[in-house]
Amino acid sequence: MPNKGTQRVTMKEIARETGFSVNTVSKALRDAPDLSGQTKRMIRDVAKRLGYVANNMASALRSGYSSVLALIVGDISNPFFGILCKEIEQQAARHNYTVIVFNTEEDPEKEDRAVRTALSQNVDGVLLAPSQNGAQAVRLLQAYGKPCVLIGRYFADRAADAVLYDDENGGYLAGKHLLECGCRNLLMINAPHNSSAENRAKGFARAMTEVPGAKSRMLTVESPLGGVPSALRQAYEQETIDGIFAYSDLFAMKAIWTLDEMGVEPGTVRIVGFDDIQSRLSLSMPLTTIGAGKAAFGQALVELLMKRISGDMSDFPVQQVLPTKLVVRKSTRQES
Amino acid sequence: MPNKGTQRVTMKEIARETGFSVNTVSKALRDAPDLSGQTKRMIRDVAKRLGYVANNMASALRSGYSSVLALIVGDISNPFFGILCKEIEQQAARHNYTVIVFNTEEDPEKEDRAVRTALSQNVDGVLLAPSQNGAQAVRLLQAYGKPCVLIGRYFADRAADAVLYDDENGGYLAGKHLLECGCRNLLMINAPHNSSAENRAKGFARAMTEVPGAKSRMLTVESPLGGVPSALRQAYEQETIDGIFAYSDLFAMKAIWTLDEMGVEPGTVRIVGFDDIQSRLSLSMPLTTIGAGKAAFGQALVELLMKRISGDMSDFPVQQVLPTKLVVRKSTRQES
DNA sequence: CTGTTAGCGCGTTCAT
DNA sequence: ATGAACGCGCTAACAG
Fold first, then answer.
1. Are residues A87 and A231 in the same domain?
2. Do the Cβ atoms of A191 and A251 come closer than 8 Å?
């Protein structure tokens, strides 16, 4: 076992080198207010010279704060979460925090393991995109008094903090846009039961009521997308479709490609997605979508969690809602 | 400060509850070989009943092993790294390891900070996708004796472990395929100076030598992709182009969309990318590409790092190369 | 098989 | 303004 992981240079050595006590070294490096500037400077110079790197485990063990957050999502390779992960990591870094990532695959057991591992790592807080059964994970975290903010979803009891998109409005904007494009036979391809899927469907349905003669159906497809092609083929054969609202941009792209493979003339079916991942990926998808700021989202998540960690907040759960807006691209424009 | 992050239940309490010493509890929970099965079972039952969660910081402080890895990449929101991150997280979990993520934005300063933070978190090892100046980060890690495996790139001295794709062969396959499609005026859109970009270009150039009359140019574009459109427009105006080999699928998609915006007839220019991100993202990009297994890549990275951590390996640096293959899709097929 | 002793590196508390 | 003593929770090394 050659690499013991232990730091080479410790405060003890800096103390020996400078003649001060370990305690004084500790204070100097943390910029405590009751030390002379000269002492601080000297100690820091020596620390730098020796290549001192703080041992966060020791500091965490003693202080009770680890400066680590957990990010628990279904699938970090999903571009939406990838973008979000980056924003979160950067916001966390601003607060001198580090981020551990877990994938749950939407599997309650893996989610549970992720939460336990996070607790075991003494994370100061958790950002959780819960699976359908995620309420259990939330209860576990709450039982351990660990601050937790939900990502984009909430549960019926609304007992946990959450940062959300205005899904209902997003769904409404999507439906309204498709109707304004002249579509009358609409299909929503939705994800399975969760709060954001429900609200998007609700807003979409509301838009439908505003135009007489508009017909719409809904199709629910298991993530991860495997079911889109067959479901869409079936729906398309049953009845004509001239507009699709998809739960996410990934669903929408799958739909576009499926229609292409089915030989449907481009421009026949207008499509709207959700998330606007393309604006950040340079993926160049010409897809109309419901945009929702991901930088603001990540920032809101981290800020809320930080407030919970520092404890300067009332104990009532907070659900913060971020606005959504329509972004028009080629997938709903007339093919000329 | 209401949440001290400290675990509620400690080994001490389990010891009190069971009548055993703290040490015996520790051994039982770690499944040490020198305890009676009965004792172990009893202790574990009590631990479970009390909801015990191990405190990994304390364990790490004492043992010198944190069971944490650092993953340092340019941009985790890049789908390639998103997919890789997921693979790595899952492989790490198999070894009871946890992954901390850092984004460097290809900025040497951020890269340096990431390495220092990782050291400070006592990670047992680092997986690093180095920036152009990343050799410095590697030296820092080596100076601290911290195991490190490079992701997809290496430096001239080859002094660090690395897992690589067979970039040279990938470039060759791409070039050969375009030539076989009948293209004779080729363009490679490459990323700035790094080992994988160079090797892809080398293989591509080799393919060009095999067909008399084939003409090819190379264009180098700064990541993150911003420059592709203008560079491509300029190149296209200068001279005719009937085939493009792009450094990555992201570059390729940007190129496709740019050509579309330029009003170039679809099918006029055949395009080959690199990475095959679409097979994993369900992104449904009909893009011919050089495929390179990402599951195998993640696994090789983690396995190699684990071997370094456990120390059962010779000290010579290892460069492991994974095969690449051609994946033909619509972007190089004849538009009928 | 089980208990005792010691200490990982640091922060807190109190004394000076 | 600085230092000494103590302990965070756990594991290593030994003793029995």
1. no
2. yes
Q: Do A124 and B281 touch (CB under 8 A)?
A: no
Q: Do A102 and B89 touch (CB under 8 A)?
A: yes
CA distance A240 to chain B (A): 23
B216 and B77 within one domain: no
What's the pLDDT score for residue A3?
40
Specify the pLDDT at position B286. 82
CA B204 to chain A, closest CA, distance in angstroms equals: 24
Closest Cα in chain A, distance from residue B145 (Å): 7
- CB environment B267-291: b (16+ within 10 A), e (fewer): eebbbbbbbbbbbbbbbbbebbbbb
DSSP state of B265: P
* pLDDT tens-digit series, residues B280-315: 876 667 899 999 899 999 999 999 999 999 988 888
Residues in chain B closer than 8 A to A6 (CB atoms)? 64, 122
B48 CB-near residues (< 8 Å, 6+ apart): none
CATH number of B70's domain = 3.40.50.2300
User: Which residue of A lies nearest to B67 if distances are taken between CA atoms?
Assistant: A121
pLDDT of residue A205: 98
Is A206 inside any structural domain? yes
Q: What is the mean pLDDT of each run of 10 residues along chain B (336 residues)?
A: 57 92 92 87 93 94 94 95 97 97 96 97 97 94 95 95 98 98 96 94 98 94 79 90 95 89 89 92 80 95 96 90 96 72
Of A241, A240, A167, A152, the C-alpha closest to A204 is A167
**pLDDT, tens only, B322-336:** 999 999 998 998 654
Closest nucleotide over all strands to A23 (CA to C1'): D3
Q: For the segment A217-267, what is each residue's pLDDT rounded down to a tens digit?
A: 999 998 666 788 888 998 998 889 999 999 999 999 889 888 988 989 888
pTM beyond cutoff 0.70:
yes
Give the bases of strand D that a protein CB approaches within 7 Å. 1-5, 7-13
Q: Does one domain contain both B102 and B190? A: no
Q: Which nucleotide is nearest to B8 (CA to C1')?
A: D9
Express as a percent the part of chain A with pLDDT over 70.
Answer: 95
Q: Is the pLDDT of residue A336 over 50?
A: no
Percent of chain A residues past pLDDT 90, beyond the cut: 76
Pairwise CA distance, residues A113 & A104, whole Å: 9
Q: With an 8 Å Cβ cutoff, are A76 and B65 in contact? A: no
Question: A83 and A222 share a domain?
Answer: no
CA A71 to CA A298: how far, in whole Å? 11
- Cβ neighbours around A210 below 10 Å, total: 11
Residues B73 and B138 in one domain: yes
Find the residue in A nearest to B252 (Cα). A283
User: Is A85–B68 a contact, with Cβ atoms under 8 angstroms apart?
Assistant: no
Domains contained in chain B, number: 3
- Owning domain of residue B82: 66-165+294-322
Q: Are residues B185 and B276 in the same domain?
A: yes
Chain A positions in Cβ-Cβ contact with residue B308 (cut-off 8 Å): 3
Q: Which amino acid is at A315?
A: D
Q: Give the pLDDT of residue B219.
A: 92
The token pair at A38 is 């000269």
Measured between alpha carbons, how far is A177 from A251 in angstroms, rounded to an integer? 18
| B62: nearest nucleotide, CA–C1' criterion | C8
